[in-house]
Amino acid sequence: MPVKVSKICCIGAGYVGGPTCAVIALKCPHITVTIVDLNQSRVDAWNSPDFALPIYEPGLVDVVRQARGRNLFFSTDVDKGIEEADLIFVSVNTPTKKSGVGAGFAADLNYVELATRRIATVANSSKIVVEKSTVPCRTAESMRTILEANSKPNCRFDILSNPEFLAEGTAITDLFKPDRVLIGSLETREGVEACQSLAEVYANWVPQDRILTVGLWSSELSKLAANAMLAQRISSINALSAICEATGANIDEVAHAIGYDSRIGPKFLKASVGFGGSCFQKDILNLVYLSESLHLPEVAAYWRQVVEMNEYQKRRFSKRVVDTLFNTITGKRIAVLGFAFKADTGDTRESAAITLIKDFQSERAFVNIYDPQVEEEQIWNDLSEASPLIPIESIKKQVTICHSAIEACKNAEAVVIATEWKEFLEIDWEEVYKGMNKPAFVFDGRLLVDAEKLTKIGFKVTTIGRPS
Ligand code: NAD
Ligand code: UGA
């Protein structure tokens, strides 16, 4: 008989663990959900009385407000969370390895392994252990080996893969109405029953036909495949944007025309200054590493090109800024609007803005930055991590963080739109123009603003995917 889940523990209170399990708690008032993390300040923020949560995500505060203290709890007591639960999500970070075998490509599975070992050490009763983190294909097997080698008598561990497909900025709507929930299990009786237990949790709000059950390895690989194919679409449209700039075609019109083909579809065809975020690059590199380990060099090269195209797009955009500003930006002031990797999030991981600003710094320009959500400290951390050899005091001489778009654009030669925040559409561009040095340039890396309107004001506008 499948276990009826009444207590869930989620290890990892990050961008995935927090929102995902908060929504489970909201939709399943009969289940107690405890989200645990080793990071005390993160847990404190989740528990903060004024709901100053550690991540910005539209709609998240409402969910936490309704469920916290009722059947949703945040804690640093990892062991207690594990001990009490019948189902445990492992939702820890799996960044790209920085050193050792596979450095720069393979996923660092240290956090997954530590969490797994903790479960094995602490558990006194049987548990369903669910991989929520994005992991290389067959990670569940390593987890099972660790758990089984360390389990106590009468403790069974059933491992499931249940990758998460939410996107930041729309996490809550994605979780409320997922395209699909994917659950992978072994095809043994116990595996199938564990799968049914988790499927029953989701069935509280997700229609049955959207809950897909597959084999463990297919589930693990499907997550990497989905991200690789989404990123590939962006690299494809960005590659076409370079052709548009050189020929006079317009990338918006091209995307519109090809998106009308129902086999291609209109979504995820927005040319940009390059994709960012914590996962696309990491997961493709992971797929590249997997392909190489399997002696499939052509497959590895195919996926690697998606990341290379993205790097090329960022470089191409900064070069276009320099070229347009009469081949030098030394001593000039550039306003960068947006620092997050996309709108509606405060997350900056792998944000294209970081690369652009680094390029402007190395050209010895002054940079003003404004982002409505990203904390000042985060910006300094990211810029110093991007240029480890430059002391932060030197970076601070070149870079200023501003509190509004208008302030950032004051006395600048050029405005670069790096994130598609809606508020940049509502800026008083006449006012911006008055405050800037002339000629005043706008570089739209997000196809956001109305180039015609800005040109009428007097700006010289350069848009990605359109000729200058
Ligand atoms: P994150 O860094 O925001 O959160 C991970 C959390 O795990 C951190 O707070 C960390 O302190 C905690 N942690 C690490 N080891 C721990 C341990 N042993 N015990 C307790 N806590 C521990 O990461 P994230 O963005 O939430 O991503 C988590 C996983 O989900 C990754 O594998 C990622 O690829 C995947 N994913 C992320 C997204 C996204 O939008 N960010 C979407 C889908 C999937
Ligand atoms: C992405 C996937 O969309 C999620 O399904 C997945 O769960 C998640 O990665 C993950 O595994 O972490 P996310 O990175 O949060 O979600 O955001 P996206 O909306 O996919 O955007 C990623 C990047 O691509 C952003 O920098 C965005 O600006 C850029 N993008 C997106 C474009 O340049 N053009 C587009 O048409 C779409």
Beta percentage is 5-15%
Briefly note the CATH topology name of the largest domain: Rossmann fold
CATH class of the largest domain: Alpha Beta
Helix fraction by DSSP (H/I, runs of at least 4): 40-55%
What molecules are bound to this protein? nicotinamide-adenine-dinucleotide, uridine-5'-diphosphate-glucuronic acid
Strand-pairing-aware structural class:
alpha/beta
CATH superfamily of the largest domain: NAD(P)-binding Rossmann-like Domain
Please compute the radius of gyration using only Cα atoms.
24 Å
* Mean pLDDT over the full residue set: 97
Q: Care to describe what's here?
A:
The protein is of the alpha/beta class. The protein has 2 domains: about 5-205, NAD(P)-binding Rossmann-like Domain (Rossmann fold), CATH 3.40.50; about 280-465, Rossmann fold (3-Layer(aba) Sandwich). The protein contains 18 helices and 14 strands. The protein has helices spanning about 15-25, 40-45, 60-65, 80-85, 110-120, 140-150, 170-175, 190-200, 215-245, 250-260, 280-295, 295-325, 350-360, 375-385, 390-400, 405-410, 430-435, 450-455; strands spanning about 5-10, 30-35, 70-75, 85-90, 125-130, 155-160, 180-185, 210-215, 335, 365-370, 400, 415, 440-445, 460-465. It has a 6-stranded parallel beta sheet, with helices on both faces. It has a 6-stranded parallel beta sheet with strand order 11-10-9-12-13-14, with helices on both faces. Helix 5 links the parallel strand 4 and strand 5 (about 125-130). Helix 5 runs parallel beside helix 6 (about 140-150). The radius of gyration is 24 Å and the shape is globular. The chain starts with 6 loop residues before the first strand and ends in a 5-residue tail after the last strand. The mean pLDDT is about 95. The structure holds nicotinamide-adenine-dinucleotide (NAD) and uridine-5'-diphosphate-glucuronic acid (UGA). Uridine-5'-diphosphate-glucuronic acid binds next to helix 9. The site of uridine-5'-diphosphate-glucuronic acid has 21 residues, from helix 9. This is UDP-glucose 6-dehydrogenase. It catalyses: UDP-alpha-D-glucose + 2 NAD(+) + H2O = UDP-alpha-D-glucuronate + 2 NADH + 3 H(+).
